[in-house]
């Protein structure tokens, strides 16, 4: 029973008892009875009026509660004109006005935050109290390859209870799951450098903020591949310039001294002169090799900007296959096309790109030959040119499968090579050419006994 009914019942019961007591005056004092009854009726009426006025603030409180519950902060309560109620209603209206201003400010801030998250190139994921994704921006969706992630923890994709975007191929799915696993295992407060299966590097940080007194986590992921590669390129360029200066000066001086020493050959006996000349020529050859070694690094560092012209990819690859066919045939290596779709001409620097593709094919052939030397036998180097919409995808497959457990980020690092005695210049040159053309590329094992080097040529105008 409500307070209004309780007070009403109490007032009515009290007056009924008084009416019963006044009935005792009816026989002996009828005039007093009538007066008492009239007074009690007036008292009951006055009690009802006072009860309504006393409980009127509860009605305003209830209407204020309804406005809060419905979120109608812009509405206002009507001022009743009573001094006591005016103060209460004014206080309620002040509170509604303050809540309305705070709601507008929060809405503006949320709108700004949403636009900021969508505009930022970094990936941002915000989790709820249970660790499920509650907010994610477009960059995170593209980076992780997930769709409709709200309400799911990152572990859901690792356990298979949530699926990745259907547009991803097998390699992209493996890369996404590996990156999700690294992010899910990232400790709170740590800022770590992560590397995906394609060698791209990211700075990831897990932090927390408090919402209604409870901690919620968030992840921020920023790709650093281009920045780090530019820094590495500048460092290597400076190192090569210093080495080239010192080595070339030493090589030139040594060559001059060696040539001068040959003039003394005639002053020696015949047997000694022959040994003397042989030793000098051997040193000159090593001197020349050192100079050529430095020149190869210098050509990579001083590579000119690409001059883009329409170039046929198939024709370029056909020339490379023709140049290497005899070498492969003599070694028993199968060399040719696995698939070749019609592809339009692409804006490329033909000279630079031909050098890069020749290096890729040469590396594949040498890898298969190394596997043969280790008793592998047979082997193939096959190429595939596929249309993907307006883009073209060129892949080079080799059966050597020598990558093993090599971290992807090391494959294109200067001075690193998977070949015995390799100098690590070839892939450095290839990477530089592809990056200057703005082409996406990857080098990885297919998991089916092959290594695949893939280059994607997007459609673009010259």
Task: Explain what the structure shows.
The protein is of the alpha+beta class and 462 residues long. Helix content is 55%, strand content 17%. The protein has twelve helices and twelve strands. It has a five-stranded antiparallel sheet with strand order 2-1-5-4-3. A five-stranded mixed sheet has the order 7-9-10-12-11, with helices on one face. It is rod-shaped.
Number of helices: 12
Straight-line distance between termini: 84 Å
Rg calculated over all Cα atoms: 43 Å
The largest β sheet comes out as: 5 strands, antiparallel
Low-confidence stretches: none
Shape label: rod-shaped
Number of strands: 12
Main-sheet strand order equals 2-1-5-4-3
Fraction in helix: 40-55%
Mean of all residue-level pLDDT scores: 80
Strand content: 15-25%
Structural class: alpha+beta
- Series of secondary-structure elements, N-terminal to C-terminal: HHHHEEHHHEEEHHEHEEHEEHEE
Quick rundown:
It contains 12 helices and 12 strands. The chain has helices spanning about 5-20, 25-30, 30-70, 85-120, 140-145, 155-160, 170-185, 225-260, 270-300, 315-330, 350-375, 425-435; strands at about 125, 135, 190-195, 200-210, 215-225, 310, 335-340, 345-350, 380-390, 390-400, 440-445, 450-455.
Features:
rod-shaped; single chain; 462 residues; alpha+beta; five-stranded mixed β-sheet
């Amino acid at each position: 029973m409500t307070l209004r009914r309780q007070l009403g019942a109490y007032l009515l019961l009290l007056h009924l008892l008084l009416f019963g007591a006044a009935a005792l005056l009816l026989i002996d004092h009828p005039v007093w009875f009538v007066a008492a009854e009239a007074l009690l009726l007036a008292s009951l009426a006055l009690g009802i009026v006072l009860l309504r006025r006393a409980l009127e603030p509860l009605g305003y409180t209830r209407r204020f509660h309804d406005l809060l519950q419905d979120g109608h902060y812009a509405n206002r309560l009507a001022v009743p004109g009573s001094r006591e109620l005016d103060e209460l209603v004014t206080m309620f209206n002040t509170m509604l006005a303050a809540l309305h201003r705070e709601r507008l400010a929060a809405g503006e801030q949320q709108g700004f935050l949403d636009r900021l998250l969508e505009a930022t190139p970094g990936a941002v994921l915000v989790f709820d109290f249970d660790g499920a994704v509650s907010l994610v921006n477009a960059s995170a969706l593209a980076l992780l390859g997930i769709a409709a992630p709200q309400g799911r923890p990152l572990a859901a994709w690792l356990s298979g209870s949530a699926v990745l975007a259907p547009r991803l191929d097998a390699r992209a799915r493996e890369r996404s799951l590996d990156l999700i696993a690294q992010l899910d295992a990232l400790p709170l407060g740590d800022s770590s450098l992560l590397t995906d299966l394609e060698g791209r590097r990211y700075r990831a940080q897990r932090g927390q903020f408090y919402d209604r007194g409870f901690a919620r986590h968030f992840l921020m992921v920023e790709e650093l591949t281009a920045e780090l590669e530019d820094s590495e390129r500048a460092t290597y360029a400076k190192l090569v310039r210093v080495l080239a200066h010192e080595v070339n000066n030493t090589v030139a001086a040594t060559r001059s001294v060696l040539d001068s020493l040959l003039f003394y050959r005639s002053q020696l006996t015949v047997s000694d002169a022959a040994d003397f000349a042989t030793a000098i020529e051997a040193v000159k050859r090593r001197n020349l090799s050192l100079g050529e070694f430095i020149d190869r690094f210098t050509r990579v560092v001083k590579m000119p900007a690409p001059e883009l012209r329409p170039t046929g990819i198939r024709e370029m690859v056909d020339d490379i296959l023709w140049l290497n066919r005899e070498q492969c045939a003599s070694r028993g290596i199968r060399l040719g096309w696995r698939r070749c779709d019609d592809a339009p001409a692409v804006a490329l620097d033909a000279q630079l790109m031909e050098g890069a593709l020749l290096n890729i094919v040469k590396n594949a052939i040498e890898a298969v030959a190394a596997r043969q030397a280790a008793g592998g036998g047979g082997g193939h180097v096959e190429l595939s040119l596929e249309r993907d919409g307006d883009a073209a995808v060129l892949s080079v497959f080799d059966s050597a499968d020598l990558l093993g457990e090599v971290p992807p980020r090391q494959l294109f690092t200067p001075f690193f090579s998977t070949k015995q005695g390799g100098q690590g210049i070839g892939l450095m040159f290839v990477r530089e050419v592809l990056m200057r053309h703005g082409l996406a590329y990857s080098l990885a094992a297919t998991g089916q006994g092959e290594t695949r080097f893939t280059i994607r040529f997007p459609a673009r105008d010259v």
